[in-house]
Specification:
The protein is an alpha/beta fold and 329 residues long. The protein has helices at 3-10, 14-22, 29-42, 48-55, 73-86, 100-110, 126-133, 155-169, 184-200, 214-227, 237-249, 267-271, 283-299; strands at residues 60-65, 90-95, 116-120, 138-141, 149-153, 173-177, 203-207, 231-234, 259-264, 277-280, 308-311, 314-316.
Length: 329
């Protein structure tokens, strides 16, 4: 079955059938629906390889994350893949393992196979991202680089909410366990938590950089205890869970002896005991929004692609935070 058979059966020109599949926004809704219905009835499937050769477009998108084992990323990946499929695109996923050199290598490799790239929590420097973004359409998630579209999660508001929550419980000395060097999220948290602590009149110590993993939280435990803080805000849920594990190994109990807040609201945090108080990040919404921004840039190449979307965060209070114990007597 060929495209000409579909055109004849649908009583349209061959070019209309082609546009119905490759650029549906250019075809009237009634015509597009008729063409797609006839194609389905006849069992016609467009030849993607031939289409790519003709249009120069693969209808493939790259999605690069810093650590696919981190439970923050799978909901974003799943949402992005499903949303892209609805819009007629496929997604290639790659993992950098928190390595900036690997990140650049993957971008250059994918550039030969995709129309554009979504870069999530990148570890490359802004100058390098800007240089690579000039060669291939980019959308960033949780990184802001001038001249590039971005989807940002309002982690600054989340960090401020975490400080306010702990201060409201009566904690007067807090510690922020930051993330990896060069992390936009970690920098946003540090600035916002510092301002919120000053506004609340509480002390805030900052530790880092730290690996954004459970082992990173375990390794940070001695430094956290040395601060003698009674409340901790961790870079993400994995760091928070590792910290709780490290504290438990030292017979320091959460939240009786110290309160801990994570960031992300992952399944791991909800299953942890105690259940983790955390900043909920809109990961699925970020995946869908990033796909929309990238496809918009691909399908309207003459327009500047510098849109920036900020998605709201919220604090989810569970069992890992409580009022500090008062000294006896």
């Amino acid at each position: 079955m060929t495209i000409r058979d579909v055109a004849q059966a649908a009583e349209v020109h061959v070019s209309t059938v082609s546009r119905a599949f490759s650029a549906p926004h250019l075809v009237k809704r009634e015509t597009r629906e008729r063409v797609l219905a006839v194609a389905a009835e006849l069992g016609y499937q467009p030849n993607e390889t031939a289409r790519a050769l003709t249009t120069g477009r693969t209808r493939n998108l790259g999605l690069i994350v810093s650590d696919i084992a981190n439970p923050f990323f799978p909901p974003l990946i799943k949402a992005a893949q499903a949303h892209a499929r609805v819009r007629g695109y496929q997604v290639f996923v790659a993992d950098t393992d928190e390595d900036a050199a690997v990140e650049e290598e993957l971008i250059q490799t994918l550039a030969r196979q995709v129309d554009g790239v979504i870069l999530v929590s990148p570890r490359l420097a802004n100058d390098d991202i800007g240089r690579l973004g000039g060669e291939l359409p980019f959308v960033l998630v949780n990184r802001s680089v001038p001249g590039l579209s971005a989807v940002l999660m309002d982690v600054a508001n989340g960090a401020a909410l975490a400080v306010d929550h702990l201060a409201g419980l009566g904690h007067e000395h807090l510690v922020l366990v930051g993330g990896p060097r060069g992390s936009w999220t970690s920098a946003q948290m540090r600035r916002a938590a510092g301002k919120a602590a000053a506004d609340q009149g509480v002390r805030l110590d900052v530790l880092g950089p730290n690996p954004p993993t459970e082992h990173g939280g375990i390794a940070a435990t001695p430094a956290v205890l040395e601060t003698r803080a009674t409340g901790v805000i961790a870079y993400n849920d994995l760091v928070a869970i590792g910290l709780i594990e490290g504290l438990d190994d030292r017979n320091v109990h959460v939240p009786r002896d110290i309160s801990v807040i994570g960031v992300d609201d992952t399944v791991a945090g909800r299953l942890n005991r105690p259940r983790l108080t955390t900043v909920a990040m809109p990961t699925a919404a970020a995946g869908r929004t990033a796909v929309d921004l990238l496809i918009q840039a691909l399908e309207t190449p003459g327009e500047p692609a510098t849109a920036q979307t900020m998605l709201a965060t919220s604090l989810v209070i569970r069992d890992s935070t409580a009022a500090p114990e008062q000294p006896a007597g």
